[in-house]
Amino acid sequence: MDRPVDAQELKHRLPHAAITFRGYNQTNLGRSSELLQHPRYGAIVHRYLLEAQQVCCDNLHRQVDLVDRVRRNEETTLESYAEAVAIILAMELAHLELLREFFDIDFTQAKVSLGFSLGEVGAIISSGLMTLKDALSVPIIMSDDCIALADGVKLAVLFSRDAKLATDVVEQLCQEISAENNGTISISTYLAPNSLLLMGQGDTIDQFKRIMREKFPRQTFLRMNEGAWPPLHTPIVWQRHLGNRCAMMIQKSPIKYEKPKPPILSLVTGKVSYEKLNARELMHKWIDHPQKLWDAMYEALVMGVETFIHVGPEPNIIPATFTRLRDNVEAQSKANISIRALSAAARRRWLQVMLPQRTALLRATMILQINIEDWLLAEPQSRS
Q1: Residue 196, strand partner residues
Q2: How many CB atoms lie within 10 A of CB 158?
Q3: From residue 239, how far is each of 80, 148, 231, 251 by CA, in Å?
Q4: In the prediction, which pLDDT does 339 show?
Q5: Are residues 305 and 366 in contact, defined by beta-carbon separation less than 8 angstroms?
Q6: Residues 6+ apart with CB under 8 A from 119
Q7: Strand partners, 112
Q8: Per-residue burial over 10-42, b = 16 or more CB atoms within 10 Å of its CB, e = otherwise
Q9: In angstroms, what CA-CA distances link 206 with 13, 110, 183, 223, 290?
Q10: Model confidence at 1, in pLDDT bands (50, 70, 90)?
Q11: pLDDT band at 203; cut points 50, 70, 90
Q12: CA-based end-to-end distance of the chain
């Protein structure tokens, strides 16, 4: 949290705020155990965990105890991917219910919502388009295949310390390597004009690293990430037909034919795209289309968002990405006051070129970020 905010100010900020939902990560519990054992909050957290737990049991056909895992603060692993997914969504919804119940803060009054990866499912549920049971069932049913597809998949960050990345060159190189039939590599997330996430099977990432020296400027780097990751948002999921299977499940799931409230900024499109009839189509594309995080964040700035309210346990990629953007914009804005600052600005040429055309980026320096998990546990004065 950037600075302390009381319930009254948070409520006042809501009409100009974006509710953000986190996705799957290497750690997924955050401070959930503290919230579960909290004397005021515990009952609501317990109820949402039980509901998600039942969805797991019904679809995995085995016993799962999410409440006990959270109480013991036993972190998830890739092998417990289904439980991680269920806990993340349950806690996101619990956070919003706690805001409503104890602080009279109606999250549906927010200007917009957005979620990274699994977080978009959280946004769909909270907006009223689908129930937790119906929406959660889809990733739970596909969880075993996601775990299997993660075997041998590597995640890497491709970034430039100078110019904007030529994404068309990145995409072509990924297609050429994939066409050799030794594994698939693809862009999974557009983080910023100078950085993106790649996911690749086998040694495809290593092959990309060897070839990229001939394709990209000298100040372009590839950094490997540790851990195993389900390759959602890439064509790798085609290998188990997850896209079509997801579409078939969603086709048979109840969805409200109305605009979501708050509106959802989809990372499939980078725009506010959910309308009355296209939720199923967007959820189908969500499986194998790369996440347009940069486009969505820029769109939020254009829309006049002044506050990012992060829900879910230990929110990560959206706050981290936005903080990096804010720091870069602040540094670039000061670049005309010292030789040292000008030298640093030279390493952000992509931003220097972009700022005159995209002046909404300047608003990044004024955005307030609030981590609701921490905010709730700071125990601000609740309504009587």
Answers
A1: 158, 190
A2: 23
A3: 21, 11, 11, 21
A4: 42
A5: no
A6: 20, 21, 22, 23, 92, 312, 318
A7: 18
A8: bbebbeebbbbbbbbbeebbbbbbbbbebeebe
A9: 46, 43, 12, 11, 21
A10: low
A11: very high
A12: 25
Does the pLDDT at position 6 exceed 90? yes
Outline where 61-110 has alpha helix (H): 66-72, 81-103
**Whether pTM exceeds 0.85:** yes
d(CA 291, CA 268): 6
CA 343 to chain centre: 33
3-state secondary structure of 221: strand
Residue 225 token pair? 């990430």
- Nearest in space to 27 (alpha carbons), one of 92, 74, 89: 74
Residue 264: which residues within 8 A CB-CB, separation 6 or more? Answer: 112, 113, 114, 120, 123, 124, 127, 272, 273, 274
Structural tokens at position 100: 């409503």
pLDDT at 346: 47
Q: What is the pLDDT of residue 358?
A: 64
Tell me the β-bridge partners of 189.
Answer: 197, 291
What are the CB-based long-range contacts (under 8 Å, 24+) for 9-12?
Answer: 10/99, 10/103, 10/105, 10/309, 10/370, 10/375, 11/103, 11/104, 11/105
Assign 150 a pLDDT band (cuts: 50, 70, 90): very high
Q: How confident is the model over 167-184, as pLDDT tens digits?
A: 999 999 999 999 999 999
E strand spans, 123-242 = 153-160, 185-192, 195-201, 220-225
Q: Give the integer Cα–Cα distance in Å for 114 and 297.
A: 9
